[in-house]
């Protein structure tokens, strides 16, 4: 495809979203769904952030590679992201691992997930491909990153964060010169390189890569033929480009989208129960670190048709109320006190119950006189009347999953096992 000088770069690009990850650190939250399909923020899923960034950036061609327990994710895509129109040259393809290339293998790595779909990407007729992880929370204008990629004539441009060096070992780390050219890339090193201007911080990869499609296509074909490769961008392709080509770093702060309320660029990997709980609870702050009310950069999702939230009963000890909380549609707070919590669609909180610092996923039903503090409740859980969580750590750990940070995860199977044991 020839570049069109009168078009935005995003109109000549496609977004390829890697959404096959299990997210095992989220424990039982990913027993029935992939990490990108996990709920976040009251009504959205984690993957909605990457897709919304692409849509808001002007990208109208997207592909989503799925693998692990993909039904919940695919259903969400079909319900919430089905507005693309082929007659307007818009596409959203869901690409499950379906053994299209070799009947003996699924997606072997992040690069292999793209390589197995080369023919589909070819049909898109695009000049640029943006590889995205589908499991992070952030707002970013990819057009800015595309422009840097084109102007620098890079082989690959990598989205980068600056993090404390002590935390950098969990990421792909890099060193870059003053021009932004990456001189070293190491996947999850024990001793991450520090920044020249600040040795206490490191430059790490966001898992966002911009390529010219012609270049990436040839790279993927060569990698697919290499029996020694793990077929992964971070382990194999990126280090190779750093060594033999031109890899450029793109600082997230240069393309982060803010409404004016955020004090610093916001990016979160909500890959643990503690991080998931904290990021959701952060949204209840007076001035949250992430502004979900920014209509200039909306987070698109499947918008269920549900009635408004409702608060009933008004007597001492039995007053339906919510303070510093997010209450989604179809919730009924019935004579219950909710504080610093986030209730997803369709939750019920019954009389004389107290809910504090709780993240309740859709259609949770909290029984009378329950006392819940600092916990995450999985979708559809029926909390029995009188249950107390968050007071006695030993009792919590006996029946539920309690994290090192003191957050309790409650699922229906855990409650069923508890009920059976107690008779």
Automatic annotation (TrEMBL):
CDD domains: ADP_Glucose_PP, LbH_G1P_AT_C. GO terms for molecular function: ATP binding; glucose-1-phosphate adenylyltransferase activity. It comes from the Bacteria. It is an enzyme of class 2 (transferase). It catalyses: alpha-D-glucose 1-phosphate + ATP + H(+) = ADP-alpha-D-glucose + diphosphate. Alpha-D-glucose 1-phosphate binds at residues 107, 172, 187-188, 205. The record marks 67, 106 as: Could play a key role in the communication between the regulatory and the substrate sites. Gene3D superfamilies: Hexapeptide repeat proteins, Spore Coat Polysaccharide Biosynthesis Protein SpsA, Chain A. Residues 15-284 form the Nucleotidyl transferase domain. Pathway: Glycan biosynthesis; glycogen biosynthesis. GO terms for biological process: glycogen biosynthetic process. Its EC number is 2.7.7.27. Keywords: ATP-binding, Carbohydrate metabolism, Glycogen biosynthesis, Glycogen metabolism, Nucleotide-binding, Nucleotidyltransferase, Transferase. Residues 307-410 form the Glucose-1-phosphate adenylyltransferase/Bifunctional protein GlmU-like C-terminal hexapeptide domain. Belongs to the bacterial/plant glucose-1-phosphate adenylyltransferase family. Involved in the biosynthesis of ADP-glucose, a building block required for the elongation reactions to produce glycogen. Catalyzes the reaction between ATP and alpha-D-glucose 1-phosphate (G1P) to produce pyrophosphate and ADP-Glc. Homotetramer. This is Glucose-1-phosphate adenylyltransferase. It comes from Rhodobacter capsulatus (strain ATCC BAA-309 / NBRC 16581 / SB1003). The gene is glgC.
């Amino acid at each position: 495809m020839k570049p069109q000088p009168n078009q935005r770069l995003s109109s000549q690009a496609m977004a390829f979203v890697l959404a096959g990850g299990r997210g095992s650190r989220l424990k039982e939250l990913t027993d029935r769904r992939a990490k990108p399909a996990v709920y976040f923020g009251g009504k959205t899923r984690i993957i909605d952030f990457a897709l919304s960034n692409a849509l808001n950036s002007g990208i109208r061609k997207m592909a989503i590679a799925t693998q692990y327990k993909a039904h919940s994710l695919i259903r969400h895509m079909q319900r919430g992201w089905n507005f693309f129109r082929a007659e307007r040259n818009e596409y959203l393809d869901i690409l499950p691992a379906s053994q299209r290339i070799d009947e003996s293998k699924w997606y072997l790595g992040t690069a292999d997930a793209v390589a197995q779909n080369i023919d589909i990407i070819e049909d898109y007729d695009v000049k640029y491909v943006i590889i995205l992880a589908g499991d992070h929370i952030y707002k970013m204008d990819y057009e800015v990153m595309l422009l840097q990629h084109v102007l620098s004539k890079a082989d690959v441009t990598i989205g980068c964060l600056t993090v404390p060096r002590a935390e950098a070992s969990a990421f792909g780390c890099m060193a870059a010169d003053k021009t932004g050219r990456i001189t070293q890339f190491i996947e999850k090193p024990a001793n991450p390189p520090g920044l020249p201007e600040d040795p206490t911080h490191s430059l790490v990869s966001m898992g966002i890569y911009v390529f010219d499609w012609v270049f990436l296509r040839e790279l993927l074909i060569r990698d697919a033929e290499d029996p020694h490769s793990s077929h992964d961008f971070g382990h194999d392709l990126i280090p190779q480009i750093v060594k033999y080509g031109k890899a450029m770093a793109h600082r997230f702060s240069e393309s982060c989208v803010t409404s004016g309320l955020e004090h610093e660029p916001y990016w979160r990997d909500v890959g643990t129960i503690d991080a998931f709980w904290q990021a959701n609870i952060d949204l209840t702050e007076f001035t949250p670190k992430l502004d979900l009310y920014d209509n200039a950069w909306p987070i698109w999702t499947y918008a269920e048709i549900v009635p408004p939230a409702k608060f009933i009963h008004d007597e001492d000890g039995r007053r339906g109320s919510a303070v510093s909380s997010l209450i989604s549609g179809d919730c009924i707070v019935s004579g219950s006190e909710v504080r610093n919590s986030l209730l997803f669609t369709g939750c019920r909180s019954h009389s004389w119950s107290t809910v504090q610092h709780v993240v309740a996923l859709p259609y949770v039903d909290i029984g009378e006189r329950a006392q819940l503090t600092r916990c995450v409740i999985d979708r559809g859980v029926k909390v029995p009347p009188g249950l107390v969580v968050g007071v006695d750590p030993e009792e919590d750990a006996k029946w539920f999953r309690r994290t090192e940070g003191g957050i309790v995860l409650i699922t229906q199977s855990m409650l069923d096992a508890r009920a059976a044991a107690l008779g």
